[in-house]
Design a protein that fits this description.
- The protein is an alpha+beta fold.
- The chain folds into 3 domains: 62 residues, Trypsin Inhibitor V, Chain A, CATH 3.30.10; 73 residues, 2-Layer Sandwich (Trypsin Inhibitor V, Chain A); 114 residues, Trypsin Inhibitor V, Chain A, CATH 3.30.10.20.
- It contains 6 helices and 16 strands.
Length: 297
């Protein structure tokens, strides 16, 4: 028999056909199963879950996606338990049933330790508070030899010791020395400054943030100061004075273009107050002079 004698047998060709048919069927089944498993023919748009409560989102969409919580953060002003970031991003083209990785806003507030501010300057104290995640409630100026020196630190009306654990964002009252000369402080020109920086800048100047008024509705990040009372045209005021401010959205007003007009508007608003301040200054000067004459006699 020759080596290729099997090629003459019908049984060989029958087996070959069966093998080819089985291969074709297996390949077809494989691709069908892959299409079903990967949902190759179905593409969805990833919803935007940011800002929504994680537990509620997971409850409503658990059939569509597999949620995996990977971290929690402490961003300021965000709702605890809400989704802060998500992957895939909103609007992405995805397949149903895929993993969604989420970072949420921590449910338990972040804690920090109260620093020791006694005996240091106001500027340094504000810096230490902010680096610790705390905020100035207001400045309370009192008679003390050293000007802008921190005498005491208060939380909820009580002195608070260094190392006390507080929730980040807690408000701290600073008792500050007014100095021997009891000199007044100049009102800084904050017209056009963003609302998010106003309190910090006023505190650095030895002043407090008073009433806040909003002329229109918009996100705080777009709000800028349109008027101040007392304003920069008032000159100088007592340390610790509360400054009332009026905000306007930078989307509807070009503060750079209208700055001169806004400053002029501020000077007109503050004319009566400026006169009162000057009268008070004259009265203080007269009283001091009378007191000096009484000492001579």
């Amino acid at each position: 028999m020759g080596r290729f004698q099997f090629l003459k047998e019908k049984k060989f060709y029958l087996n070959l056909v069966i093998i080819l048919v089985l291969c074709i069927v297996l390949i077809w089944l494989t691709f069908r199963l892959l299409d079903r498993y990967t949902r190759h023919d179905k593409v969805y748009t990833m919803p935007d879950f940011i800002g929504q409560d994680y537990r509620e989102v997971k409850r409503q969409h658990s059939k569509d996606f597999h949620f995996i919580l990977i971290d929690s953060v402490y961003p300021k002003g965000q709702q605890p338990g809400s989704i802060y970031q998500q992957d895939p991003l909103p609007g992405s083209k995805i397949k149903k049933g895929r993993n969604v990785y989420a970072i949420i806003v921590a449910v338990t507030p972040e804690k920090t330790l109260m620093p020791n501010l006694k005996g240091i300057s106001l500027r340094e104290a504000i810096g230490r508070l902010e680096s610790s995640g705390l905020e100035v409630d207001h400045l309370d100026y009192v008679d003390y030899t050293y000007k802008n020196n921190i005498i005491e630190q208060y939380y909820q009306g009580q002195p608070i010791a260094q190392g006390t654990e507080l929730v980040k964002g807690s408000q701290i009252v600073l008792k500050v020395g007014i100095g021997q000369d009891k000199s007044r402080v100049k009102v800084p020109n904050l017209i056009g400054k963003p609302a998010t920086d106003v309190k910090h800048l006023l505190n650095l100047a030895g002043l407090n943030l008073g009433k806040e008024e909003f002329e229109d509705s918009d996100s705080l990040q777009y709000m800028c100061i349109r008027r101040m009372s007392p304003g920069p045209s008032s000159g100088s005021v007592n340390a610790g004075t509360f400054i009332d401010v009026v905000y306007h959205s930078s989307k509807t007003m070009d503060f750079k273009k209208d700055m001169n007009e806004l400053i002029h508007e501020d000077s007109l608003v503050n004319v009566p107050q400026k006169i009162e301040i000057e009268i008070d200054t004259i009265k203080e000067s007269v009283e001091t002079t009378d007191y000096e004459y009484e000492d001579e006699f």
